[in-house]
Amino acid sequence: MSIKQLVKEKLPKHIAIIMDGNGRWANKRSFKRIFGHREGMESVKEIVRACCELDIKALTLYAFSSQNWKRPEHEVEALMGLLKKYVRSEVNELNQNNVRLQGIGDLNKLPKSVINVFNEAVEITRNNTGMVLSVALSYGGREEILNAVSKIANKIETGELLSADLNELTISENLYTAGLPDPDLLIRTSGEMRISNFLLWQIAYSEIYVTDVLWPDFRKDDLYRALIEFQNRKRRFGLTDEQISEG
Ligand code: FPP
Predict the structure, then answer these.
(1) pLDDT in tens, 91-108
(2) Ligand 1: does its nearest atom lie under 6 Å from the Cβ of 188?
(3) What are the residues whose beta carbons fall under 8 Å from the beta carbon of 122, sequence distance 6 or more?
(4) Which domains does the chain have, with CATH numbers?
């Protein structure tokens, strides 16, 4: 698998990833689950770097769902620790690579120390104009849509918006991902055929790529494999083949 097989014009603008399989990776080795998450962080570093090299405009990573709070306390703590570690160790490189970091989700639920470390990195990278790296934290797709609807309802109540003017863009602009194009490609590792409440509105027309590779094993070559498959897919957006080729 080689980067040479990639056609720049056919690369997705926005890649979203459900990073799954850390626990299974650890179990297979009789390690504690946290070792899977730790190795998963190495995959995050490599994939972020690879996406920068390819000049991908947006990368969105599902790091912690609103349901993940129900995991054992020590696992939640370990994941929060890894997040801080990642941000602290990578912020300079992200900044040098012109990456803008942002968190998406119910970020107020995160421990104060995580919020502080994260916000500092968001601030440092605020004016960067390259790739937007969105990390989904305490994130749920339904919650995101509910939050958008509630913001819109408020704007209608105050007269800032008229209900007759509502359209799809109104929803998109009030989601956490406002300003980003919808993902062209959604990758899920570890073989599960589920969306798991991720970017429900935004993935309406995304190409979905599921691989059996567990997230800690998912590295550059696996990303290239997904991108090559993406390039060979025919995206129709509800049109016919004939309409697409006339296009
Ligand atoms: C899913 O694997 C993975 C997570 C719930 C956490 C993802 C976190 C990381 C990759 C590490 C740090 C992240 C960043 C952004 C630095 P799972 O535990 O559900 O695996 P399983 O399904 O095999 O049990």
Answers:
(1) 999 999 999 999 999 999
(2) no
(3) 101, 102, 103
(4) 14-235 (3.40.1180.10)
